[in-house]
Structure formats: C-alpha cells, structure tokens
Amino acid sequence: MDINDWKDRIAAFVDECGLSQDPFMRVMCSVEEMGELAKEALKSVDYGRRNFKASPDFQTELGDVLFDLLCVAAFAGVDPDAALNATMRKMAQRIKDKGHPGSRT
C-alpha cells in the first residue's frame, strides 16, 4: 500500500467514525502526538543514559503521528507523495548548494 492509499484509507475511516476535523485542528492533534512521541524517545534512551531503541510505545506513538499527518493531508487536499517528493528535491538541492539540508544559510 502506498502513502496515498493510506491517506485515503485513513480519510474513509475518519469519515465513517465521525472524526472529521478541519486541517488546523488536525495539525494541533499532530503537535500533541509529536510531544508524546518525543516523550517515548526520551524514555527509550533513559534521558541520555543509553542508545536509542524503538520501544513498542514509541512505535505506537509514531503510528499516531503518521495517522494524524495523513489526516491533515486528506482534509487539506494535499497529495503526500507529491509533498514528500518536493521535500526530497528541496533537501537534495540544499545539500548541493550549502553542504547540509538545513534551512539556515
């Protein structure tokens, strides 16, 4: 299943369950889920005391983030495959031009 198939599947699920929200609210949900993912990342490294290993809780939170981001894409009318391809081209160009993928100069 490709990313657009997932987007469509998630959009249908959200619609069937009456969970539709406008894209702004879905972005806010994504931010909250990113916080939970960050918490699980910190726990997985015991706050810097060991190397990272994706725990089952980390994997669950990552799934929540992906779900919400694909909801944002669905309700905002964004093709996630096209968005990712554009980002890959942007990153490659930055590395070519500046030697790093960051937006800083």
Distance between the termini: 38 Å
Strand tally: 0
Number of domains: 1
Going by CATH, the homologous superfamily would be MazG-like
- Which overall shape is indicated by the principal axes computed on the Cα atoms? flat
Per the CATH scheme, the topology name is: Helix Hairpins
> Mind telling me the C-alpha Rg?
16 Å
Number of helices, where a helix is a run of at least 4 consecutive DSSP H or I residues: 4
In what range is the share of β-strand residues? under 5%
Under the CATH scheme, the architecture is: Orthogonal Bundle
The percent range for helix content is: over 70%
| The level-1 CATH class | Mainly Alpha
What letter string, H or E per element, gives the SSE order?
Answer: HHHH
Query: Mean of residue pLDDT?
Result: 94
- Structural category: mainly alpha
Biggest beta sheet summary = none
- Poorly predicted regions: none
Question: Explain this structure to me?
Answer:
The protein is mainly alpha-helical and 105 residues long. It has one domain: Orthogonal Bundle (Helix Hairpins), CATH 1.10.287.1080. Helix content is 72%, strand content 0%. The chain is flat, with a radius of gyration of 16 Å.
Supply the key terms.
single chain, mainly alpha, Helix Hairpins, 4 helices, 72% helix
